[in-house]
Amino acid sequence: MRAVCQRVSSARVTVAGTVVGEIERGLVVLLGIARGDEAAEAERLAAKLARLRVFEDEQGKFAHSLLDVGGAALVVSQFTLIADTRKGNRPSFADAAPPDAAEVVYERFAAQLAAAGVPVEFCRFGARMAVELVNDGPVTIILEG
């Protein structure tokens, strides 16, 4: 499991011109789920993300988490994060979890994040999406599960 987390001042996802998820201050989480990833890994990663200190204090140090600042998370499924590009020029997605298995883990991740106290916006799993965000910093962190 791989999560690319971008600190944002605002973000939204649209599907076919309709907004399906939108947040103000918080994190956009692009979540890639690999074959074999399970709910337990999603729970651990969600707990880490809720407490990840990537928001600055008065001295400009990363001292605050989503929970500390009352930020939200916009969780976007993105199987392309599991791409293998070691051979040739076309990415292989053979290591990505099949959609039915990935959706279960994606939903568990988002539900666990919400249970930790983070407001969560879900996206439409498997849909072709347009993601718009204002990256704050920019701050981008990659988490492995």
* Mean pLDDT over all positions: 96
Looking at the structure, what is the overall shape?
A: globular
Can you give the helix content as a percent range? 10-25%
What does the largest sheet look like? 6 strands, mixed
The overall strand count is 8
Low-confidence residue ranges: none
Beta-strand percentage?
A: 35-45%
Can you count the helices?
A: 3
Oligomer: single chain
| Rg (CA only) | 15 Å
What class do helices, strands and sheet pairing give?
alpha/beta
Features:
six-stranded mixed sheet, alpha/beta
Task: Walk me through what this model shows.
It is a single chain. This protein has 3 helices and 8 strands; from the N terminus they run E-E-E-H-E-E-H-E-H-E-E. The longest helix is centred in the C-terminal third of the chain and has 17 residues, at 99-115. Strands 1, 2, 3, 6, 7 and 8 form a 6-stranded mixed sheet that branches. Helix 1 runs parallel beside helix 3 (99-115). The protein is α/β, with parallel strands linked by helices and 145 residues long.
In brief, what are we looking at here?
This protein is an alpha/beta fold and 145 residues long. It contains three helices and eight strands.
SSE blueprint and pairings:
Layout: E1 2-15, E2 18-23, E3 26-32, H1 39-51, E4 55-56, E5 62-64, H2 66-69, E6 72-77, H3 99-115, E7 120-122, E8 130-144
Parallel strand pairs: 3-6, 6-7
Antiparallel strand pairs: 1-2, 1-3, 1-8, 4-5
